[in-house]
Specification:
This protein is α/β, with parallel strands linked by helices. Helices cover about 25% and strands about 30% of the residues. A 7-stranded mixed beta sheet has the order 5-2-1-6-7-9-10. The termini are far apart.
């Protein structure tokens, strides 16, 4: 098929790879403008742009799609469909109407659960047992369109946002290729029951509140790995917590935030219920370290206390 592709991060780049490998003709790629990144803050192209340039595909990076000139640019392609994956711009109706088969979105949740910007993190925070990908016919509503194809997978113990992202990216790449092969297909309306919204992650959510149960804090650590990283405050200094394990049956009899023990197996911290053992940590400007190495450079003794959020 003759396609337009719109996407920005690695999740979308994997789908673009799969679409090209399946033999489809992608004549135009839309992606977010290059952003400054790294210590030098040099402009860096998105992963999708890198794939497009390597494949010799023209790249279009409009700051908005509300401009009629952009609509005309898309119409000129005479594409049969437009595939959208984590693009980052709202598509107005004028854009949705451009391709013959409309715009197909690769969404990383089991719709109607977790419509919105951060479905992977929200699924982990909520303790969902499974996740998945839906290929949705786009409408102007927020992820409200009918579903053409879907797949699901279990959320494994210890799953992080990073590991779940990679699994869902692979699943989404396979499903979009299958969906394109079956167009126009028969989209199924989303049910009215079970709608939830995955709000964008705010960095303020990253601070660990030790008054919560250890199980909830463990989910928070995993949901915010690799971004933005869960944060604990020790002696007024922020410490990123990248890995942890919870012991819900332990009752240390200490105030929430109190260090119960500290050793090679981790820093055990009392919670509102149970204990959270911190096993991989990072101080500002430092490297991510296993607990044993972290403690060698930053001693933490039983009785020390992590601060509670205000």
């Amino acid at each position: 098929m003759k396609l337009i592709f719109a996407g920005t991060p690695e999740f979308a780049a994997l789908a673009l790879h799969a679409i090209l490998a399946a033999g489809h003709q992608v004549t135009l790629v839309l992606t977010q403008p290059d952003r400054p990144a790294g210590r030098g803050m040099a402009l860096r192209p998105s992963p999708v742009k890198e794939v497009a340039l390597a494949a010799g595909i023209e790249v279009f990076q409009p700051p908005t799609l509300k401009d009629p000139a952009a609509w005309e640019r898309l119409r000129a392609e005479q594409a049969e469909a437009m595939v959208v994956a984590a693009y980052g711009l709202i598509l107005p109706q004028a854009v949705l109407d451009v391709p013959r088969f409309g715009c197909l979105n690769i969404h990383a949740s089991l719709l109607p659960r977790w419509r919105g910007a951060a479905p992977i993190q929200r699924a982990l925070l909520a303790g969902d047992a499974e996740s998945g990908v839906c290929i949705m016919q786009m409408e102007t509503g927020l992820d409200t369109g009918p579903v053409l194809h879907s797949g699901r997978l279990p959320i494994e113990p210890g799953e992080t946002a990073g590991s779940l992202h990679d699994k869902l990216a692979e699943l989404g790449a396979r499903l979009i290729v299958e969906t394109l092969a079956g167009l126009p297909g028969t989209p199924a309306p989303q049910p009215d029951a079970g709608v939830t919204y995955a709000a964008k992650i705010d960095k303020a959510e990253a601070q660990l509140d030790w008054r919560l149960p250890a199980e909830r804090l463990d989910r928070q650590v995993r949901a915010f790995n690799p971004f933005p990283g869960a944060v604990a405050l020790l002696d007024g200094v922020p410490v990123k917590v990248w890995r942890a394990a919870c012991a819900t049956d332990e009752n240390p009899g200490a105030a929430p935030g109190t260090v119960v023990s500290a050793g090679a197996d981790g820093i055990a911290v009392a919670c509102g219920q149970g204990v959270l053992r911190l096993t991989e940590l990072q101080k500002a400007g430092g490297r991510r370290l296993p607990a044993a190495q972290f403690l060698a450079g930053h001693p933490v003794r039983p009785g020390a206390a992590f601060a509670l959020p205000a």
